[in-house]
């Protein structure tokens, strides 16, 4: 009953916060009730001394060092290892009684930090979690307790009292996941009946005069320096009204000629005003075993020595008197305790997950994130990085442009990157396409879409990359040779539709004009942002396609759009353009053109009529890097605009104006001329007769689906031109030209 | 920052002077006992100046993702498995139970040979060694400094491997040290005062990452001869 009492009495010290915590842990409610009942019963019992247990405190460096030891030194060796911890008696109030292990813990003979006491420990590092679980904890504790007991019995503990602070650490290091399981034990020999308090703990300043306190400090310092150390775990004290003497523990008999009343001092890491820390426990046992029969009352000084803002004080040390049970005749090792509770207050191990700071892949991720955050913190505080990082990007084409776009996306921390390409890597590619190497070209070459994914993962394991080795059906490239080619084309279309719907931004990075038609139509229909990059020899265009307004409200918004865009081609739409501004300024995103809007011919087989050298896209090598990087930067700027793809297009004229986003302008197009090292920022309207994004094309696609697309693939370009009215436009233009010419002739 | 840009009123420090400055700094730390120590890397002549600061916090700060409550379910299973093996010793412990949430900040002052100036490395963790993210570190920096950290030369916080320990640390990148050291050193020169480089430097960079440098360092620590 006594033991239970004292244990439960301890719960009275728990703060309100702890109560909640205890209630949160499963099935503890009843314990609390029980506690309050027992507390009431307790109040009449004789006061017993209670100790503040050690909290294990591990520096991150300890886990790093354990990992190194396990990998380079221990391997599968499970034998116990000597390690070293330390504790400190100079903490400010409010800090827990700690035993600290640093990276230097494995250097058992190494130095201890100044004014700290060393504690020798034994590390049991198991190879498996199972072994960690099944290790006989009681046997480990008994073994350590036995060592302490033997040292007390033999008198060895008097000469070197550090054995009294021995600890055990049981660990399992899961180095695949960087999870560490651990359980500390601070063995303490138990008095069965507890230790009876004769005089309650008081602070030293209430018991000692100023003279006594300064005399004690001076005596302690001089004993430290004569012992060649900066901290003494245990020592003896005797005092008169105006002086204090101290002596090493082993001098007990000489120091106290009369053992009736002695004062023993312990270096005390606890900061509680009513309780000593753990190290006192085994010291009391040593005293009780060695001199118990001769002692009447023992005075205990828990020596606390702190320096705050340069001024040192030991006044908050506590002093009290106890009556020790006589143990001098007992020969068997007493019961011992000491396994540390886990954070839930239960007897159980602790664990720590250090993958964040030890797993190289996680380190790469956090470093990449941090670098981007720093860009925000330092330069662009309003930058919305999450918008960028979480954007899912579909890259159609994994050639020179695709490789450069992917690398720039990774630089921005974009995690989700999908490649579509049907080509294999050839010998000429690696020098221009930075995701490929010579090896990738061997034995026919790897599929670009798949090799690109492999390389992205090598560059940054945190990337979520996917590759699709597939073709994109094109207008004027018939798919109707056989049922299987039609089926294949149908499958490719479905796959592309699915991919576009699963992504936020579609990059058009192919090497032909007509391959861009199908994704332009699908993305326009799905209202997905397209960023398009195309190269000439020394010129490029990077543009965002206009983003059609959302489909739902069929009423006001969609019809005026098509009406005004049709009128804009024939006459100036004065109502939408401010006076003095040009026709092409302030175009909102939904009225911007696509890649095909400026064409007056439908896309067809552009390679058929070309000679071999024309079929190969030859451009200045720097061009793809410039255009690829600009394509990504354009996307990022669009994403930073509150209206995203609907943002009004910035033009070259806006260069002097207040930029619309934290990153600056949001142009419609960037056209670059490498020969002049010059870029311009044109903007153009959607064309109502566009062969890709005009309403009639989208309506046909949305109504007939693959049937319509197959007609486009299989027919000559006149099909789309007839459909959109381009044919008619051609005829009208030709007629006008004829009239113009005849006018000229007439003059 | 190339060697060619070096100004004659030097912001640079050779390693010997660094060590001497540290030694004087540590001497004063010893007298006021504020916890600085020199950590020698075993088997080398390399080392660094180190200080650990413990900070009690509201435990709710740690509950989010950190500390002991990770993979709670697994640990419960593990605990159940194990508990049979160890008697619940609460009864015999005669112990007072407290619950603590404590953050540990480690500050390391290293010499950078490439920049020829001191560099401040730091990290923060819970008592089980679980590191805090930079956001969590910042949430504990005084708001006045937090704002400063985002401006001027303070925006150079980055994550790096500790050159001597090989573990990830945060660091204040040295590339802009000159911006604030030069005016300080010029002023001292003009007033014909000799200042301890480490004291001047650390009293500027320390506070922004929560490290206090008592005023007495400025008055008590001299420059090496």
From TrEMBL, chain A:
GO MF assignments: Atg12 activating enzyme activity; Atg8 activating enzyme activity
Q: Which InterPro entries match?
A: Atg7, Atg7_N, Atg7_N_1, Atg7_N_2, ThiF/MoeB/HesA, ThiF_NAD_FAD-bd, Ubiquitin-activating_enz
Concerning Pfam families, the annotation shows: ATG7_N, ThiF
Gene3D superfamilies listed in its UniProt record: NAD(P)-binding Rossmann-like Domain, Ubiquitin-like modifier-activating enzyme ATG7 C-terminal domain, Ubiquitin-like modifier-activating enzyme ATG7 N-terminal domain
The free-text function statement in the UniProt record for this protein reads: E1-like activating enzyme involved in the 2 ubiquitin-like systems required for cytoplasm to vacuole transport (Cvt) and autophagy. Activates ATG12 for its conjugation with ATG5 as well as the ATG8 family proteins for their conjugation with phosphatidylethanolamine. Both systems are needed for the ATG8 association to Cvt vesicles and autophagosomes membranes. Required for autophagic death induced by caspase-8 inhibition.
Q: Which family would the database say this protein is a member of?
A: Belongs to the ATG7 family.
* Name this protein carries in UniProt: Ubiquitin-like modifier-activating enzyme ATG7
Q: Which organism is the protein's source?
A: Phoxinus phoxinus (Eurasian minnow)
From TrEMBL, chain B:
Gene3D superfamilies (UniProt xref):
3.30.1460.50
Keywords linked to the UniProt accession: Autophagy, Transferase, Ubl conjugation pathway
InterPro entries referenced in this protein's UniProt entry, alphabetically: Atg3/Atg10
GO terms (molecular function) for this protein are: Atg12 conjugating enzyme activity
Q: What's an example GO cellular component term for this entry?
A: cytosol
GO biological process entries: autophagosome assembly; autophagy of mitochondrion; protein modification by small protein conjugation
A Pfam match? Autophagy_act_C
Family according to the record: Belongs to the ATG10 family.
The molecule here is called Ubiquitin-like-conjugating enzyme ATG10
Organism, as annotated: Phoxinus phoxinus
